[in-house]
Amino acid sequence: LMRPLQGCRRRGVVVGTVTLCLAAGWALQTPGGVSLVVPQPNINATVAQNILLSAEYSCRGVATIEWKHVSSWGTTSIAEWRSGNYANISTVYKDRVTTFENGSIQLRNVGMRDAGYYFVTVTDEHGTNAYGTIIVNIYEIIYEDLHFVAVLFAFLAAVSAILICFMWLCNKSLHLFQKKTTHKLTASTTEEIELETIEC
């Protein structure tokens, strides 16, 4: 009696597994469903730079894309649009954001307040969501360092100019010294010739 029951249980497990696989395959083939890929989840930028918050989604129907920015200053809605339709960009970002059909946005002229987390949500017609996050770090250009480099460059240029002038003066002095030495030698040779002539 026990052996047939074990065989039935095994068949039941096999049938259940096959049914589950078929159901999963059927669910994947039904309309709807959305996927989202964020190729660059971490971005480093400097002040006044333009950055691309890249996202690529796929959806069988019409998708709604929404971007939000979360930082220590709070949460701000950036843009929301349906694929193929006009993008609704918030007034804070109106002149600084460009939206793209693949779900990406470009943020122009970033400042320190633009650092933080950027969340993108893609929702299909059936209410299925896909989420992505990008961390943006903004760095200031330290003008004190640039000032130091400029001062150092000016100092080195001045030292180079002084050395060039010093070498030119040394060369000139050497030339004058050689000229005087040559003149003295010529004069003494002339005197010797004159003395020899007088003696003769």
From TrEMBL:
Keywords: Glycoprotein, Membrane, Signal, Transmembrane, Transmembrane helix. Its main location: membrane. It is found in: Membrane. InterPro entries: CD2/SLAM_rcpt, Ig-like_dom_sf, Ig-like_fold. The chain crosses the membrane at residues 146-170. Residues 1-27 form the signal peptide. GO terms for cellular component: axon; dendrite; plasma membrane. GO terms for biological process: filopodium assembly; positive regulation of excitatory synapse assembly. It comes from the Eukaryota. PANTHER family: SIGNALING LYMPHOCYTIC ACTIVATION MOLECULE, V-SET AND TRANSMEMBRANE DOMAIN-CONTAINING PROTEIN 5. This is VSTM5 protein.
